[in-house]
Amino acid sequence: MATLIQTFDKYASSEGKRNTLNKAEAAKNPDDVDKMLKGLDCNGDAEVDFKEFVLLIATMTCGAHNRFCTQW
């Protein structure tokens, strides 16, 4: 959990608001990042806050869990 928080804080605080990720902080490929951010931005403010970020991590974890559990 500490790594998750540190990773979010590292990127979120590089520009703009300290507690959200924006397009400039997240991307090397603006088009791909735009699609990803739109999918994560539940409240429509054009930024990803920590709660939205955690939803991404939880979804990815569940997907990975399902994939690995079917292999056993």
From TrEMBL:
SUPFAM superfamilies according to UniProt: EF-hand
Domain EF-hand: start-end pairs: 28-63
Keywords: Calcium, Metal-binding, Repeat
UniProt keyword tRNA-binding present: no
UniProt xrefs under InterPro entries: EF-hand-dom_pair (IPR011992), EF_hand_dom (IPR002048), S-100_dom (IPR034325), S100/CaBP7/8-like_CS (IPR001751), S100_Ca-bd_sub (IPR013787)
CDD domains assigned: S-100
Gene3D superfamilies given in the database record: EF-hand
Record keyword Repeat present: yes
UniProt cross-references to PANTHER family, sorted A to Z: PROTEIN S100-A1-RELATED, S100 CALCIUM-BINDING PROTEIN
Protein name: EF-hand domain-containing protein
